[in-house]
Inverse folding.
């Protein structure tokens, strides 16, 4: 039975086209994994701009923080504290609502009379699925244990600046790796194409 790669051989695909189509299955062309099988392979791949965008965002954040007055920082610290408390309350409410839904379904499953002894294991399975989901999805201990200390404006500002600098350093390192990976892919693809020019087949 032909595979997605070999099916075209019956249609007299050329050696070069067969090699290039098979190359799509290699890590060097992983950047094309979501594209159609007949999408042309470019001469060169360009690195993703994800990390450079994140560096620009973090740099803009540093610039914005540098322009803050003491009063701005105090207000931002207060807003951040209130947002943390609201997020905590929202998460607890969401989990409590989900727990109620799970418990309602669990009560229905428990009340259900299995039609035969062969269905008893199925009923047990349903009960286990719901109880495991309650334990995993509805545990509010993490949220209830969170303590939100209100920072001063200066503390909040220092923390935000440190976070932005950390983001810049992290994305800078990841961007360098992305460039290196992309260049390795380009080298692999270039060497493959060069080999086809000299292939004696």
């Amino acid at each position: 039975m032909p595979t997605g790669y070999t099916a075209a051989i019956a249609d007299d695909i050329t050696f070069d086209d067969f090699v290039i189509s098979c190359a799509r299955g290699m890590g060097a062309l992983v950047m094309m994994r979501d594209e159609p099988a007949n999408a042309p392979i470019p001469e060169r791949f360009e690195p993703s701009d994800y990390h450079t965008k994140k560096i620009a965002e973090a740099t803009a954040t540093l610039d914005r923080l540098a322009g803050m007055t003491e009063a701005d920082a105090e207000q931002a610290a207060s807003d951040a504290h209130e947002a943390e408390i609201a997020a905590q309350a929202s998460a607890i409410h969401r989990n409590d609502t989900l727990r109620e839904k799970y418990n309602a379904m669990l009560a229905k499953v428990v009340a259900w009379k299995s039609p035969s002894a062969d269905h008893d294991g199925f009923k047990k399975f349903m009960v286990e699925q719901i109880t495991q989901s309650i334990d995993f999805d509805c545990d509010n201990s993490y949220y209830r244990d969170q303590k939100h200390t209100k920072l001063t404006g200066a503390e909040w500002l220092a923390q935000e600046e440190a976070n932005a600098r950390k983001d810049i350093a992290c994305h800078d390192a990841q961007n360098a790796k992305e460039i290196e990976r992309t260049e390795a892919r380009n080298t692999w693809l270039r060497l493959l194409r060069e080999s086809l020019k000299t292939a004696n087949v």
In short: The chain has six helices and no strands. Helices lie at 15-23, 50-66, 70-111, 120-137, 141-145, 153-197.
